[in-house]
Design brief:
Four copies of one chain form a homotetramer. Chain A has 101 residues and is an alpha+beta fold. Helix content of chain A is 41%, strand content 33%.
């Protein structure tokens, strides 16, 4: 299990608004099996097996091209820990319990 | 107003667990005026004026050194939009309204 | 053709030096067919077909685990342009020719 | 001394070409005192004191706005090591000497 953050930024779009393209990426995530995800103000975070997550990221990266964009910059940050199970909730809980909440 | 994502990764720590160091960064955010923030499974997201946000990021980056680390890799992604007010909630709402929720 | 930047950061290593792990990643690149690469002070940059580049990144990401690390944070930034051929040299030349004008 | 990688991506530009904007950022670097830099196919890498580097990054981030862009996404990755002097050349040399070149 890995936790992966993905940001897909289309370049050369008609306006500075990107929500249409982000929504296209989230639509991919909604239909994808084998992963869980969370939308954040700076992208999406995905939890699952790394090879499956990559398949999904690959589809997200194609979305702006399908809408007519000529260039896409996609950033993927993979947190892969193998001495214990890593989950989105577990990562946040570990920090919050240290903060005494 | 900008929305900024920050990830602080100490290198050469005694264990693979980083929650102690993330908690130190969140403690900085809790006490910082002039910004709002959100903890995510992959870092923290901060909203505020860019120069103020940088002051806070600068303090977060120092936290692992204060705990004895010799090396820190900090990643900062700045989303700065000036034709309309950018907020963490506004960014997520724009996507969700397109998705029909 | 895409141009992709990769940074592989092992977490919880015995020292703050990472050159051993970076060298392991570069050894993967040296033997990999179908791509070209360049080592920079902040990671490696790879040029090739996206699916092939991912196969190579996948192997790079495994290197620190093979050396005993328990956790790895890998960052991948993909620049994919489809209205013209994107290359590492072409990207730098385009900037330099503008600066020399 | 830190080594910092910077990528400035304007959003909503008239074309998918970004070399004009990258050249504007490199022009800032050429005139900046107190740092050294290197242009790569995926951004620029800067070496110097962290507070000075940030001042320069701040100016780079403003360049696309000065050219009329409404939105800019800037990514900054800071490698800060304090048990030994970190330099761009030293980082690459350490890897190459391990590879036996």
């Amino acid at each position: 299990m890995v936790v992966v953050e993905v940001s897909v930024v289309p370049v050369g779009t008609p306006s500075a608004s990107l929500s249409e393209y982000v929504a296209g990426c989230v639509a991919v995530l909604k239909q994808a099996g084998g992963i869980t995800y969370r939308l954040t103000p700076m992208g999406t975070i995905i939890e699952g097996e790394l090879d499956r997550v990559w398949e999904v990221v690959r589809q997200m990266h194609e979305q702006p091209f399908a809408k007519g964009c000529a260039r896409v910059v996609t950033t993927v940050r993979i947190d892969d820990r193998r001495d214990k199970k890593l989950t989105m909730d577990g990562k946040v809980s570990a920090v919050e319990s240290r903060l005494g909440r």
